[in-house]
Structure formats: structure tokens, C-alpha cells
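G., before I forget:
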Amino acid sequence: MSSLLNNLIVTDPSGSSRKESGGNLIHLQQRPTEDMATQGNRGRLRALASGGGSMCLEEVVIGEEIPYPYEVIQESAEYLLSGTRHRPKIGVICGSGLGGLADQLDERDVFPYESIPNFPVSTVVGHAGRMVIGLLSGVPVMCMQGRFHAYEGYPLWKCAMPVRVMKLMGVEQIIVTNAAGGLNPGFKVGDIMIIKDHINMQGFAGDSPLRGRNDERFGPRFPAMNNAYDKNLRDMAKKIVADMNLSDVVQEGVYVMLGGPTYETVAELKLLRVVGVDAVGMSTVPEVVVARHCGMKVFAFSLITNQCIMQYDTDATANHEEVIEVADKRKKDLQELACRLIVKMAVVDQDG
Ligand SMILES: O=P(O)(O)O[C@@H]1C[C@H](O)[C@@H](CO)O1
Ligand SMILES: Nc1nc2[nH]cnc2c(=O)[nH]1
């Protein structure tokens, strides 16, 4: 064991690395190389050694990745900027089955995720896996046609890294969408829930897309998360849905992200309802946390694609086919809502 430890580098909380052969609680890891930064640090070993002078290996973690540094995000942003003449200030992340908005863009430039340096790839049905940049009613927009989820095997920082790419490209406001199960008994399948707040379950458990050394160029070490969902944008959206005669299918509520890929047990749903959750999903929160960290304004909504099953005596089950089917039926309304909102967001942005 000591020969293993002798080959490890200690990284202290300030990020400086040194070789270590003893001491109290220390964090040991391989020195990150440029290769690791761009390809992911798949084989990283981490060990915790503790005790009064005598060292013991308590934990070895294989497969954990070090979040991308600023320069790596910059490389992705520069690649996209060099491939388009558009300079979007508004970004959209399309949830399951909701990617059709991106197909509405005029004069669009399309970048499959595989072609973008340092980008993850989409693996889920209903997520095309392309960045589409173009004009929506004349407003430059960049749309993620497909997102990344923790259950695909991505760490939270990687699920949310495209938000930082957007930021470095000049995006200031973001619309985040998802498909979710309706837990509030007043919600119906097909309802649209404007998200007014979230519960960050992964945060409760000590994980965060912001975990690790903070780079102030992105944002502060301790960002506030009250008012994460911009009140003006929510009010704007409510006026739009009233104009569209959709008020009776629009709700406002609290979203929770669980890790998935399992849908919830009855007991889990009962617990979530007690703590005030209205809709349950598997995304959005990491992206919103990273967007707020870097100072973006956020608007988000869930399409309620299924009613959460709270009874034991039923054969009904939640399933992804239903999620995609319901999203497909509502896509026209959702696209119009997003389109009208984007036009208003652009006007407000111009007026300061
Ligand atoms: O990407 P979103 O959050 O819209 O997708 C939801 C959560 C799972 O990925 C999937 C489950 O059906 O839909
Ligand atoms: N966790 C979760 N995610 C969903 N996405 C769409 N429907 C659901 C659901 O019922 N639960």
C-alpha cells in the first residue's frame, strides 16, 4: 500500500499539488493532465489517509472525473462561435420529446454533439443530441436538442457543462424544459408547470455540479439559490399563456430532480409530496444551479407527461414511451409559448 501512496500526489483545497507520505486527513489524487481534462479522468485514484501519523487507505475511487477547467469550456465555446455567424444571448435546453423547437430556427447551424470538442453525447430516446443555433422570429437563439442526465453515467458537472459553454458564448438568459411526472393531485397529463422553485436532492446528499474547486471567472463559491427562477420571466410567461388561452392547463410549482433511471416507488412519491414537490423528474436542477452560478436569468417549465402513481392496487406503470407520446401531443403549444417568450425576453434584454 505504501508504494501506491508514494506514487500519488496530494491536492490541497487551494488546488496546489505536492507529494505526501504522511499526515492527517489528506486528499490524494493523480495530477490532472491536459489529456485528462479533455477526455475525462476515467482512471483516477483517490485515497483518503487519516490518523495521527500512521497512514491508512480508506477509499479508492475509480472513474470519478475532474470538472473541466475554464480553458476547456472556452475551447468548446470558440468552436461553436467559429461555426456560426449568430451571436445568441438566449439559450434553450429541450427536455424529453421537446426538441422540436430547434427545428423551427431559421438560418440554422447544426452541430452534432460528437463534433463539439469536449462535449458529452446524448444516449436517450427523444434527445437528438445536437446544438442548433439560428433565428427564432428574428431572435438569435441556441438550442440544445437533447441534454445529459446523471443516470446516463455523467457526473452532475458534465450534465451542466453546456450551460457554461453557452455563458462563454454570450448567453445571458436560459429556458430549461423537461418532461416530469405530476405529483400534485390537481395536475393533469398534458399540463405545463412553470417552475417556481426546486428541491436539489443531490445537493442534500453532498453532490453538486459546483462541487470541486471554484473558478471565480464562472461565479462565486457560494451562490444564492432563492429566486433561482426569475419572477419577471414567470410573470411574462403567465401573460403569454393567458393570451394563448392556455391558462387552464398551466400550473406553477416545485420540481424535484431524482437520479433515475427508475421511476418512483409509491412510498417515495408519498414522501416527496409531504415536502412540497409538485412534479418529479430526472434533470434540470444541475443546469439551473450552474446557470445561476454564472449569473444567467432562468425560466423553466415541466411538461406533465404522466400522473405519478400513488396507489398500490394498480397495474399502471410510468414509462418513457408515454412520456414521449404526451410531449409530442403538446409540442405545438410548447413551441409557441417558448417562441413568444423568447421574443419578449429579447425586447427586455434590449431595453436593459
Ligand atoms: O430530459 P428530461 O428531464 O425531459 O427527461 C425526463 C426524465 C428522463 O430522462 C425521462 C424519463 O421518461 O424523461
Ligand atoms: N423521475 C421521474 N421522471 C419523469 N420524467 C417523466 N415522468 C417522470 C416521472 O414520473 N418521474
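The chain has ten helices and 13 strands. The pocket of guanine (ligand 2) is lined by residues 179-181, 258, 260, 263-264, 280-282, 305-306, 308, 318, 323 (CB under 6 Å).

More on Monday.
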